[in-house]
TrEMBL record, chain A:
The keyword Nucleus applies. Its EC number is 2.1.1.220. S-adenosyl-L-methionine binds at residues 134, 180. The keyword Flavoprotein does not apply. Residues 63-268 form the tRNA (adenine(58)-N(1))-methyltransferase catalytic subunit TRM61 C-terminal domain. GO terms for biological process: tRNA methylation. This is tRNA (adenine(58)-N(1))-methyltransferase catalytic subunit TRM61. Signal peptide: none annotated. It comes from Coemansia biformis. One of its GO terms (molecular function) is tRNA (adenine(58)-N1)-methyltransferase activity. It holds the Pfam family GCD14. InterPro entries: SAM-dependent_MTases_sf, TRM61_C, tRNA_MeTrfase_Gcd14. The gene is TRM61. The lineage of its organism: Eukaryota, Fungi, Fungi incertae sedis, Zoopagomycota, Kickxellomycotina.
UniProtKB/TrEMBL annotation, chain B:
Belongs to the TRM6/GCD10 family. It comes from Coemansia biformis. It holds the Pfam family Gcd10p. PANTHER family: TRANSLATION INITIATION FACTOR EIF3-RELATED (PTHR12945), TRNA (ADENINE(58)-N(1))-METHYLTRANSFERASE NON-CATALYTIC SUBUNIT TRM6 (PTHR12945:SF0). The gene is TRM6. Keywords: Nucleus, tRNA processing. GO terms for cellular component: nucleus; tRNA (m1A) methyltransferase complex. This is tRNA (adenine(58)-N(1))-methyltransferase non-catalytic subunit TRM6. The keyword Nucleus applies.
Amino acid sequence: MFHEYKDVVGCGDQAVVYFTPECMYPITIAAGDEFNNKYGNFRHDSMVGLKYGSKIVSHDGRGFAFLLHPTPALWTQIVPHRTQILYLPDISFISLYLDLKPGKVVIESGTGSGSFSHSIARTIAPSGHLYTFEYHEHRAATAQREFREHSLESMVTIEHRDVVASGFGKTGIADAVFLDLPAPWDAVSAAKEALRKDAMGRICTFSPCIEQVQRTVLALDEHGFSDIRMFECLAKGHEIREVPLPDIDEAIGGHKVNFRVSKYEKKRKRDAEPTTTA
Amino acid sequence: MDAVPANPAAIAAGSSVIIRMPSSNAKIVCVKPGTTISLGKFGSFRADELIGTAFGHTYEIEKDGSIRPHRQPAFDSADITEANNREIVDDPNAQKLTFEEIEALKTRSLAGDVTAQEIITSLTENNEAFAKKTEFSKSKYIRRKERKFMKSFVPLETTVYNVCDHFFQFNPAKIRCIRTDTLSQVLGLANVYAKARVLAVDDGQGMLISALLSRIADGGAVLGIHDGDVHNYDLLRHMNFSADCKERLRTLPWSKLHYQMEPFTEVLPEDPVEQDVVGRERRLRGHTRMSGTIDMLNHGGLDALVVSTNYNPTTVLKRLVPYLGGSRMLVVYDQYKEPLVEAYAWLRGSPDFLNVQLSEGWLREYQVLPGRTHPQMSTSGGGGFILSAIRLAPAA
């Protein structure tokens, strides 16, 4: 469900219950199951048969939410964090820079919380493959369970492995390698081994600290990688408000101006927060 | 069982390639068999030399039009020493070679009689100030001269990233100034996947259409609505798309948005000549294709709506949102914020959309060299804005 859409909600589906941009939850639709929060009690049985993107009303009719189809971008917003994750701007830029597309073979380490993994899987599906490696046993198990629940197993192979100690166990198969590790310079040689030899292979590493970047760049150069570039990438959100802009002549004329909030702003506030129960 | 890698990528005859020159200038060329590719002062070489080779290698151009692979070491061993620029005065007489002598060297270099390395060595040996420079400064000087004199180039694949980066640098107006990070975010937000049917408006000469086509595969489609009778997706020709890929692009003029197709009634004349048959077949194909496109549009429930338009985006959205499926994304790109503000207000005021967001990408490149890591001196101030929202399921 994360790598293609379906229109109608069915039992066993992964879905997203959406209240506000900051408040949404993943659920697995199951007969007899319920979702409860401060907005109300939402019964799964009432969801089955609805179209994705429908409004759902709580059982007592007082609260409401929206039932959305899961996507990697939504998953990045709601995935339970086991580690710090990558967000949309970096995920998007790296995907484009590494030329990911259907059919590509990608290696990733560490899997972490699987945020980027979901996006990669969607981008390379159905004929590509993601080999992802995580050295923390519990995280690896959790990610594996999630890939299975999200029907991504045919495209994603996760292995519990320390790639710095033992490499990837792959030779000449990857179009792209992505490293999100504390010491990516220690995995460069394994990455080189895993990249395909018959065409250009691309590598990207993600590091919070400039010192890590410097060491990685040196290692890449030593191993014969060319065209080494480094970027910082962000997305700035813009908030738009409608405000009244009265003519100063009103004040000079002695009129009292009411700087009240426009009715569009009022409606937005009203719709943003579904009714809370008393 | 390990996945089998996709077909190896080598430069195919007749394909488009981005040639990057040491001066950081670049041009898109067609590697047509039997032709010569000219890089101006950097020299010319036979296109045949590149066919069948891999991308990304550095080549030096030889006197006879052949090319030789050349490994450029990325990092010198420059380090901090006692030297500094305290005693260095900007004096044109520091260089002992005369203007005429340098011009003569350049001419000989073009003729292939002297290498760029030799020129640079002459310049540094004859420069009085050179010895006094810091190691970093010497390295920077040599690098600058290499960019000026080296007769080398790198052939790059026309990936979506490379093409977008190329035009953003050299002709941004052509692609409505969409920068690589912004383009990548449009793709990410729209949730484009292999079998997606994407409704698109691209007044940026096909940069967006090309990006969308590169992310779909068998079963997917891009439906481009365009001005005029024929689309203006000029960039498509650089992308080296396969015939299968190009088949996935369907186009429709705006004027045909609500068109009711008449059945195809053309009959052959009494004594048809080959031209008549061929012509009728062509028109029948065109008719069938347009019918199919209109059917796809009218069927609705499309998987994404992606817009980069010179028209008022609010008006475009009002027309095209009805074709978008529920829980699917609409994404609008514009190089300016103002047109998107009006659209934002409309989306927010409507009960049919969720999570209306306006964002702006920010991208900064850094030089990373031992002892010399810093942001690039000049960075792009504007790569455009993105408006996005989720469409709710239309009422039954």
